[in-house]
Design a protein that fits this description.
Strand order of the largest sheet: 2-1-3-4
Pfam families: LMWPc
Distance between the termini: 15 Å
Protein name: Protein-tyrosine phosphatase, low molecular weight
Largest sheet: 4 strands, parallel
Number of helices: 4
Strand content: 5-15%
Shape: globular
Keywords: Arsenical resistance
Oligomer: single chain
Structural class: alpha/beta
CATH class: Alpha Beta
Radius of gyration: 13 Å
Number of strands: 4
Number of domains: 1
CATH topology: Rossmann fold
Helix content: 25-40%
Organism: Clostridium cellulovorans (strain ATCC 35296 / DSM 3052 / OCM 3 / 743B)
CATH architecture: 3-Layer(aba) Sandwich
């Protein structure tokens, strides 16, 4: 059975959504990617959607939506995105914080930088899971 990973932050509209998309794109053979937050947003951050589509040809509007913590299954690993406020908590066997700044409201360069960091971290997480470095 595949490990389940939840990428979480408060609004589940930008960084955690990007992480879910890139988790599905780059690590689906290693883990199931989910994202969620403590507050719903009517739509995913459209700058994030545009950047992920430009960089990776994945349309998050079609495949993802803002979800609450209780909307996702029980997970093995929780990754918080880097909350300046109180990060949401979910029960898990492993938890880590990626300390990412929220690019919301910033220019495309910030979104691209954030996407590339998430891509690297997703691939690294997949590698650590495969190498049994986490549990």
């Amino acid at each position: 059975m595949k490990v389940k990973v939840a990428f979480i932050c408060v609004h589940n509209s930008c960084r955690s959504q990007m992480a879910e998309a890139l988790g599905k794109l780059f690590a689906s053979e290693v883990f199931e990617a989910y994202s969620a937050g403590t507050e719903l947003r009517p739509q995913i951050n459209q700058d994030a959607v545009r950047i992920i589509k430009d960089l990776y040809n994945v349309d998050m509007n079609e495949t993802q939506k803002s979800k609450l913590l209780e909307d996702i299954p029980t997970v093995d690993i929780v990754v918080t995105m880097g909350c300046n406020v109180v990060c949401p908590a979910l029960p898990s066997k492993h938890r880590e914080d990626w300390g990412l700044e929220d690019p919301t409201g910033k220019n495309d360069e910030e979104f691209i930088k954030t996407a590339k960091i998430i891509e690297e971290k997703v691939k690294d997480l997949a590698r650590r899971i495969q190498n049994n470095e986490i549990f």
